[in-house]
Amino acid sequence: MTVSTLAPLQTLDSYRNEREYPFCPGCGHTFILNHLEAALEQLQLPPTQVVLVSDIGCVGLSDQYFRTNAFHGLHGRSVAYATGIKLANPDLHVIVLMGDGGVGIGGTHLISAARRNIGITVLVFNNFNFGMTGGEHSVTTPPGAITATTRTGNLERPLDVCATVAVNGAGYVYRGTSFDKDLPDRIVEAVRYDGFALLDIWELCTAYFVVNNDFGRKELLGMLDVLGMETGVLQKLDRPEYARKLQDVRKRPTDGDSMSIRTIEPLYSSPLSRKLHVVLAGSAGAKVRSAAKAAGYAGVLSGLWVTQKDDYPSTVKSGHSVSELIFSPAEILYSGIAKPDVLVLISKEGLDQVRHLLAEMTADDLLVTIPEFSDVPTKARKLVLDPRNSGIRVTRTNLSLLLTATTLRALKIFPPAALEEAIRRFQARFAEENLKVVQAAATLLASVDVPSITL
Amino acid sequence: MTREYVDGATAIARAALRSGCDFFAGYPISPATPILLHMLRELPKVGGVGIEAEDEIGAISMCIGAAVAGARPMTATSGPGISLYSENIGLAIMGETPLVIVDVMRMGPATGGATTTAQGDVQFIRWGTSGGYPIIALSPSSVGECYLLTQRAFDLAERLRTPVFLLTDKDMVMSMATVDVDEYHDIPIGSRPRVPPAKPPAADGTRINAVTGRPDGRLRPEETYLPYDFEPIDVIPPTSPFGGPHITRFTTSCHDEHAFLTKDPQKVARLNEHLRAKIESRRHELEFGLVDRCEDAQVLFISYGTTARAMREAVARTRAEGIPASALTLHTLWPVPEQLIIDAARGHTRVVVAELNHGQYAREVERILYRHAALHRLPPPTIISLTRVDGRLLTPEQFLAELPSPQS
Ligand SMILES: Cc1ncc(C[n+]2csc(CCOP(=O)(O)OP(=O)(O)O)c2C)c(N)n1
Ligand code: SF4
Ligand SMILES: [Mg+2]
Q: Among residues of chain B, what percentage have pLDDT more than 90?
């Protein structure tokens, strides 16, 4: 019959096209594809709604013999393409055609697809070797089997494909052979199953495995027993399908719009007439970056241009945390800092990171720190702040903000209200406690003499 | 004076959403993770899909599958992840798949420095898959440009059905910067050409190709159009998503117009010429950059990404002191914007190419300018490669040191 060009959802009498299969005589691939053809005829799905995703290998040629959509991708990745296709359009019927070679190289995709229970159907054309490349051994080659790469017999244990996906949550798992008369029904069942379905179908590679091992239908069936691998439907679970579940999650209430531009109009002004480089050097997990960010927002609220660069180890709660801030009345192009004008030294971990900066600083610059580091050698002038004079209980996590706020207050690059507004507006979650810290900065600053700084 | 205090990751994710991105698959890696987090948080709100894949190969594979099913995908990673993307970048080229790939460069090789800025992937992304086919790569040098060039990447990926790289770095993506909101420019985002609805057969029964609207004897019974018909050779072939009104075939292998495997030398040659020509013939549309020429300057600086910022600062400083210098900020890295470079270099005796690698783009500039000089029998400029690979940025002082001293 011919396909109407006007009715895309029409189904077909035959889902096969006129092209002949290219496989060797007796190749199991032909038998399995005949079963697939029969299954598609039973299923009566619109061919525009079916996608055959083929892997690499002889089996990778298979998609070219059907009148459905087709995706022929890279070796081992067919399950991942199928996942993407299903996620983009959960209404599609996605059927993967892969070999035992694809199972080996793409094992992680298979396991993850099973864990997710994504609604795709995987047909494993399992002929215990790489047909296309010349009969090398694969992950399913039985022990002792002779292949191009196991000339004295395979020493590896064969992968139990079904058990692997089953234990990892695959919704539907079946093992059989290309000789099974009921294979079309099982394929129909698998495609109709709303979740991840895998059929491990054992078959003969007549060009290699059969020849190398004097192997035929009888030996294949016998090997199921020898290896103790069960056949039939091995698992059928009642688990939600992943692509639909993801759609449901979309309907849950979220945190609203967090992507639109958060505009800032200057509310305050700044006397700053040059670029001011400020470095905060403290410990990871001690809220150095968040103190820097509050300072940055305060600068922008005061009409300044600000950049902030953070450096911390990948273990985010231990080691150093250094934030570099630049405040400027004009646009900042280069955002590196060779020498800080002001260094706020908060902890030992911070000190170890900024020794090279301390060495560069001159008598025009300012080091702000706590009594513990009052002796660090530097040419910069020092402002030593004793947190005990702040009137609040100082902890590891509020010290960074306390010293930053006190420094900004001393520098007078913008009014203290700017920092408070920045915290209220951009760090609302911790605003209450952080505003107390900012107010304590006034008390702390009053306890010391502040060296004069030219802005 | 309305401003925003923001990082590049936010600008990239925001621009992706504005461009209609509805699919993101990625695998966590510094310094690209912030983009993954933004996309996974935001996509469900707009009816899209965001997923953390099992690995980078899975991530890009899912994106390609989704694209063929009609989605507008993006993925983001860093050097180690690009290595794992490699084979699938080739698939995206071969199958003509729209896909935006963000590479947030970090120090390499191998695991290198996870949070250390570098620009070492410039040649890697160009030649990062087998076969040597052209790719497009754009490189922003400000947060505003992150926003603009991400949109451009989507526009080009869609219209040209090809993977497009947004090549950026840790400093651009993870540092906070102040942005004048006037810097945010929106551009119209195109779509991949779509196959029109099928048409009834002609009076004599010949079937009509939905793309050309003409009777087409080449159509197979199940076909309503030819998925890979290149007439003229650089045409972007219209496509139809899986689940749409047409049957669509997609393949990784050398293919004929039906997407069937072929070794026919004529068809293979035509396919390969098409993949080259579809980018090459559009070179002139792809030359993006910022030329800041100064008359009677001897020196032209060329840079891109974060490094271009130090260049622009250096140029502003030297001009303030009365010593002229020109600057070219490249926004397109691939294909090499040849005309832009030739025009910018005209009249300069010294061209300094600055980048955070061992001079990967300097060799492109040398190639372009030396060839141009040879063809036109002109004296070539001296080309200097200014590099830095210690994880720190090139400083304005390093640029200024390349200027002739005032006396000379
Ligand atoms: C990344 C990659 N590595 C290696 C190959 C070469 N290759 C082609 S087919 C194949 C094995 C296929 O075996 P299997 O999946 O069992 O399919 P069969 O040929 O047996 O049907 C390999 C390794 C490839 N195409 N891609
Ligand atoms: S080599 Fe093996 S798998 Fe490939 S077609 Fe021949 S028999 Fe089949
Ligand atoms: Mg095999």
A: 96
Does the C-beta of A58 come closer than 6 Å to ligand 2?
yes
Q: Looking up tokens 């035959």, which residue turns up?
A: A14
Per-residue pLDDT reduced to its tens digit, B287-301: 999 999 998 999 999
Q: Are A392 and A377 in contact (CB under 8 A)?
A: no
Pocket test for ligand 2, best of A208, A213, A215 (most atoms within 8 A of CB): A208
The pLDDT value given to residue A316? 74
CA A442 to chain centre: 45
Q: Please, what CATH class does the domain formed by B290-400 belong to?
A: alpha beta
**Nearest-angstrom CA–CA distance, B405 and A104:** 64
Read off the pLDDT of residues A60-86 as tens digits, 9 standing for 90 and up. Answer: 999 999 999 999 999 999 999 999 999
Does any ligand 2 atom lie closer than 6 A to the CB of residue A205? yes
Which of residues 96 through 135 in chain B touch A, CB cutoff 8 A?
A: 114-115
- In CATH, which of 3.40.50.970, 3.90.1720.10, 3.40.640.10, 3.90.1150.10 is domain B3-183? 3.40.50.970
Contact state of A314 with B44 under an 8 Å Cβ cutoff: no
B320 touches chain A (CB under 8 A): no
* CATH superfamily of the domain spanning A276-446: Pyruvate-ferredoxin oxidoreductase, PFOR, domain III (3.40.920.10)
CA distance A94 to A79: 10
Residues of B in contact with A331 (CB under 8 A): 178, 180
Angle at B295 between CA B292 and CA B296, to 5 degrees: 130
Per-residue pLDDT, B103: 98
* Phi, psi of B382, deg, nearest 5: -75, 130
Could you report the per-residue pLDDT of A320-335, keeping only the tens digit for each? 999 999 999 999 999 9
Determine whether the shortest distance from the Cβ of A73 to ligand 1 is under 6 A: no
CATH number of this structure's domain A28-247 = 3.40.50.970
Q: Which of B49, B69, B316 is closest, CB to CB, to A92?
A: B69
Question: What's the average model confidence in pLDDT over B378-391?
Answer: 97
Question: Are A246 and B174 a contacting pair at CB < 8 A?
Answer: no
